[in-house]
Amino acid sequence: MNPGSPETFSDPDGREPLEVGHPKCGQCRVDEHRLHRRLFIKGLAGGALASMASFTGLFHNPLFAAQTKKAQKHCILLWLCGAPSQFETWDPKPGRPSGGPFGSIPTKVSGVHFSSLLPRCAGIADKLNIVRSMKTAQPEHLQAISLLQRGNPERAGFTRPTLGSVCSQAMGQLDSPIPNFVFLDPIPGGNEFETFKAGNWAGWLGAEYAPVRLGGEYTQFLEAGADSIPQHDRESRETLRRFLTAKYQRDRKSGVARSQNAAFERLKGMTASADLFDVNKLPPKDRERYGPSSFAQHSLMALNLVGHGAPFVMVANGMNWDNHVFQHEIHQMLVPELDRVLFHLVTDLEQRGLLDSTLVIAMGEFGRTPWMNGARGRDHYPNAWSLMMTGCGLKRGVVTGATDEDGVEVIEKPYNEQNLFATIFSALGIDPYAEYDLPGMPTFHRVENQAEPIRELLA
Amino acid sequence: MCCKSVLALWGFLAAAQISGATDAAVLWTSKVQPLLDVNCIKCHGPLQQKSGLELDTIEELIKGGDDGAVVVPGKPQESRLYKNLASDAEQHMPPKKQLTEADRKTVREWIASMSAADVNPAPKPRAPRHFESVTQAIDTLISEGWQRRKVKPASAVDERTWCRRVYLDLAGRICTSAELQAFLRAPADSRRAALVDRLLTSDEYPVRMRELWDFFLMGRPKRERTEDQRKNNGWWAFLENGFRNNRPWNDMVRAIALARPEQPEDKGASWFLYERRDDYQEIAEAVAPLIYGTKINCAQCHDHPLVREIKQAHYWGLVAAYNRGKNVEGGADVSESAIGGFVNYSNLKKESKPAIVTLLSGGTVQEDRPAADQKEEDSEDKYVDPKAKVRVPKFSRRAAFTDAATRNNPLLARAFVNRIWSAFLGRGIVQPADEMNARNAPSHPELLDWLAQDFAAHKYDVRREVKAIVLSRVYALGTAEAPPEAFAGAIERPLSAEQLARSWRIAAGLPPDDDTLRRATITALPDVLPKDYNATYQQAQFLASSSMIAGILKPEPASTMTRLTALPDPVARVREAFLATYARLPDSEEAAQARAFLNSRSKQPAEANRDLLWAMMTSAEFLTMP
Question: Does the distance separating the beta carbons of A241 and B5 come in below 8 Å?
Answer without folding.
Answer: no
